[in-house]
């Protein structure tokens, strides 16, 4: 009996010590954490809401917990530190991995309705005949306006093999068109390419996800085979993405060992990311940026500029110089926390400052915030072509 009591006492002490140590490691102070969790004001507010709020169906323990965690994340005042509910985290993973089940179309809010930017080549939407500029007015009979982007996305996604009816308005057609589309696995297209005048290659990157590097290499190889003698990398409206992906793409244009970017955390620990191969250091490059080019886009533009590998044309970039890490919370939800800042090879910290282009060029007023600009109206693209024509005429490769 005495031995059993000793064993129980040891187990109890071990549990208490483990709790204190774990709490200290994760939260800094067990006393502070205990005060936070058992705070009488927090408890009273929850009690008052559950007792007096006039719509009891709107009050649930899960909603309170989600709201509380969301508030805690927001309390640091950093727009990039945020809490993801399970639904939000699922969407985040889709964006990172670059695949989902749906119809495969990029959309944006128009003046009155949701407008199609582009259907992904080979996707169900593409095969069904959806075109850029089509206006989506209904999905499965549910009316939609330009404010219903999220609702439209949820309605168009679904299990592989199931069908969805998308009703569109098309310029030149007097009546709405119903298109029955069978959902399939869709690979989010983040890279597109073409050959412009004077054998100038053009690659647009809309986001940096897991598939982006391989898609970029495939596009670049095809351009080189086609006789590409200069390259434009279009990062306009690109909000960023995965650090690993941008490091991979940057390595394609640098010498092995050249610095791409380095991170610095709260403890002043530094982590350096360098080119892992000898890439193409000969082909003239121009990078297009605007005020919506952020994060990973700024790393690519900034490192190529600092390493004197490319000229930057367009507008000053957004200015996001911090890096986030996602922590899974074990129940399908997660929290994304800003854990470090990044610095360019020159040591520049561009957070809230952005990267100033080598050649500042503004778009015509009517196209300043438009993703699809006719080529003959795209002043930034025209300037990039002009620069590369001059570079090509001087080059001997």
Write the layout of secondary structure elements.
Elements (H helix, E strand, L loop, with lengths): L1 H26 L2 H8 L2 H13 L8 H14 L7 E3 L1 H12 L1 E4 L2 E5 L4 E6 L4 H5 L6 E5 L2 E2 L5 H8 L6 E7 L7 E6 L1 E4 L3 E6 L3 E6 L6 H14 L4 E5 L8 H8 L8 E7 L4 E5 L10 E5 L6 H11 L4 E4 L7 E7 L5 E10 L15 E2 L18 H16 L3
Parallel strand pairs: 11-12, 12-15, 15-16, 16-19
Antiparallel strand pairs: 1-18, 2-9, 3-4, 4-5, 5-6, 5-7, 7-8, 10-11, 13-14, 13-18, 17-18
Helix pairs in contact: 8-9, 9-10
How would you explain this protein's 3D organization?
This protein has 397 residues and is of the alpha+beta class. The chain folds into 2 domains: 100-187, PDZ domain (Pdz3 Domain); 191-395, 2-enoyl-CoA Hydratase, Chain A, domain 1 (Alpha-Beta Complex), CATH 3.90.226. Helix content is 34%, strand content 25%. The protein has 11 helices and 19 strands. The protein has helices spanning 2-27, 30-37, 40-52, 61-74, 86-97, 124-128, 149-156, 212-225, 243-250, 296-306, 379-394, and strands spanning 82-84, 99-102, 105-109, 114-119, 135-139, 142-143, 163-169, 177-182, 184-187, 191-196, 200-205, 230-234, 259-265, 270-274, 285-289, 311-314, 322-328, 334-343, 359-360. Strands 3, 4, 5, 6, 7 and 8 form a 6-stranded antiparallel β-sheet that branches. A 6-stranded mixed β-sheet has the order 10-11-12-15-16-19, sandwiched between helices. It is globular, with a radius of gyration of 26 Å. Residues 1-33 have low confidence and may be disordered.
């Amino acid at each position: 009996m005495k031995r059993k009591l000793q064993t129980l006492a040891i187990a109890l002490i071990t549990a208490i010590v483990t709790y204190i140590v774990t709490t200290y490691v994760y939260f800094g102070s067990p006393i502070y954490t205990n005060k936070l969790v058992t705070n009488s004001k927090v408890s009273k507010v929850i009690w008052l809401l559950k007792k007096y709020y006039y719509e009891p169906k709107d009050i649930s323990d899960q909603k309170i917990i989600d709201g509380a965690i969301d508030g805690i994340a927001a309390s640091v005042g950093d727009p990039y530190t945020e809490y993801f509910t399970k639904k939000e985290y699922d969407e985040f993973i889709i964006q990172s991995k670059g695949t989902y089940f749906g119809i495969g179309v990029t959309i944006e809010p128009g003046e009155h309705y949701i407008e199609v930017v582009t259907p992904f080549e080979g996707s169900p939407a593409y095969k069904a005949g959806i075109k850029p500029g089509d206006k989506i007015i209904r999905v499965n009979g549910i009316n939609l306006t330009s404010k219903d982007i999220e609702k439209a996305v949820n309605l168009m996604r679904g299990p592989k093999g199931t069908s969805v009816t998308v009703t569109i308005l098309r310029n030149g057609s007097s009546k709405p068109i119903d298109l029955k589309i069978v959902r399939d696995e869709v690979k989010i297209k983040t890279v597109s390419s073409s050959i412009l005048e004077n054998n100038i290659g053009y690659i647009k990157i809309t986001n940096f996800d897991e598939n982006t590097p391989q898609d970029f290499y495939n596009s670049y190889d095809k351009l080189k085979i086609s006789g590409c003698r200069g390259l434009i990398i279009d990062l306009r409206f690109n909000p960023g993405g995965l650090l690993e992906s941008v490091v991979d793409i940057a390595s394609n244009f640098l010498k092995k060992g050249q610095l791409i970017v380095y991170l610095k955390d709260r403890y002043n620990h530094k982590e350096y990311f360098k080119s892992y191969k000898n890439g193409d250091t000969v082909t003239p490059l121009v990078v297009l940026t605007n005020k919506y080019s952020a994060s990973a886009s700024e790393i690519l533009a900034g490192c190529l500029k600092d390493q004197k590998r490319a000229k930057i044309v367009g507008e000053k970039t957004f200015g996001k110089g911090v890096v986030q890490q996602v922590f899974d919370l074990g129940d399908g939800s997660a929290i994304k926390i800003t854990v470090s800042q990044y610095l360019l090879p020159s040591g520049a910290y561009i957070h809230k400052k952005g990267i100033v282009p080598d050649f500042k060029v503004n778009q015509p007023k009517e196209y300043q915030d438009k993703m699809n600009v006719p080529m003959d109206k795209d002043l930034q693209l025209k300037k990039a072509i002009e620069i590369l024509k001059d570079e090509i005429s001087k080059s001997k490769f």
